[in-house]
Specification:
Distance between the termini: 63 Å
Helix content: 40-55%
CATH topology of the largest domain: Nucleotidyltransferase, domain 5
Oligomer: single chain
Number of strands: 5
Strand order of the largest sheet: 3-2-1-4-5
Number of helices: 11
Structural class: alpha/beta
Strand content: 5-15%
Mean pLDDT: 82
Radius of gyration: 21 Å
Order of helices and strands: HHHHHEEEHEHHEHHH
């Protein structure tokens, strides 16, 4: 973005771009093996104790022989895109262009496919690094409709997953997410509004509002991700894809009377029209 050969000085260019000149020379450093080991352990603890904040996680890690300061713990959690999950008042004001939408599913009977879709992002540890996984799930049948893996937490891969889900499966009546910046972004909201989909967002820190996708994260992590130390992003993508195929096509769910998500999604009888 900055050009050493340009007539403008680097100082002037950096000022126009709104960045410090020092950042021009900055080269990102890979995450250390020590931090990767900590992040892997933090992720497992977060799955078991989603209510634990940086202070509690620090204590839990100490019990397992890991030493880490609370500020460093908070930094790692931010990098991973996780936070303690519990009900608390939302006293912060959102960006004026990032509207927070109300939660629409409370006391709602979800009785058919494509009535409600849900989406979330989770952290995926690898042998030397990590990636993020975004998934779109049909609320009623638990079917994973689309997913994407990314090395960053930008909005683009979430939009790609939703576009893929709609191209393959039509569209839902309601789309539910948390209040993450990816889902409140202008581009993401525009995608849903252009498709005339009602937007629903969890209460801040309310994991139960999106409980079915949280259960999917637990399943894929304990049944696939934690069992394999992926050595590369393509290997992670292949392993995740293989598991999701198994999850959709072969993994029975007690909540679906023993059916797989695919069976529930594709074999659900159509509602009988009611005579006027």
């Amino acid at each position: 973005m900055m050009d050493r050969e340009h007539d403008l000085s680097l100082t002037r260019q950096s000022r126009l771009l709104g960045i410090s000149r020092g950042s021009y020379y900055y080269q990102p450093r890979p995450t250390s093996q020590t931090d990767l080991a900590l992040m892997r352990q933090i992720d497992e603890l977060h799955m078991d104790f989603p209510f634990a904040g940086s202070r509690m996680l620090k204590g839990l890690l100490r019990q397992e022989g890991f030493t880490v300061g609370r500020l460093h713990m908070a930094t790692l959690m931010k990098t991973m895109g996780i936070e303690a999950i519990y009900r608390r008042p939302n006293t912060s004001k959102p960006h004026p262009e990032h509207k927070i939408y109300p939660y629409l599913l409370r006391n709602m009977a979800v009785t058919r496919p494509n009535q409600v879709w849900a989406m979330d992002i989770t952290y995926v540890p690898m042998r030397r690094g990590f990636v993020y996984l975004a998934a779109v799930i049909d609320w009623f049948t638990r079917k994973v409709l689309a997913w994407r893996v990314s090395i960053t937490l930008e909005t683009a891969f979430c939009i790609e997953a939703v576009e893929d889900a709609m191209a393959r499966n039509g569209k839902p009546e309601i789309f539910n997410t948390d209040q993450g910046s990816q889902f409140t972004s202008i581009d993401f909201i525009k995608l849903l509004k252009d498709a005339e989909i009602s937007i629903s967002m969890d209460g801040k820190g309310a994991w139960r509002d999106n409980v079915f996708i949280e259960r999917f994260w637990r399943s894929i992590k304990y049944e696939e991700i934690y069992l394999h130390a992926y050595s590369s992003v393509p290997e992670a993508r292949a392993g995740i894809g293989k598991y999701i195929k198994f999850y959709n096509q072969r993994r029975p769910h007690s909540s679906l009377a023993g059916m797989t998500p695919d069976q529930a999604y594709f074999n659900q009888p159509k509602p009988i029209p009611v005579a006027a």
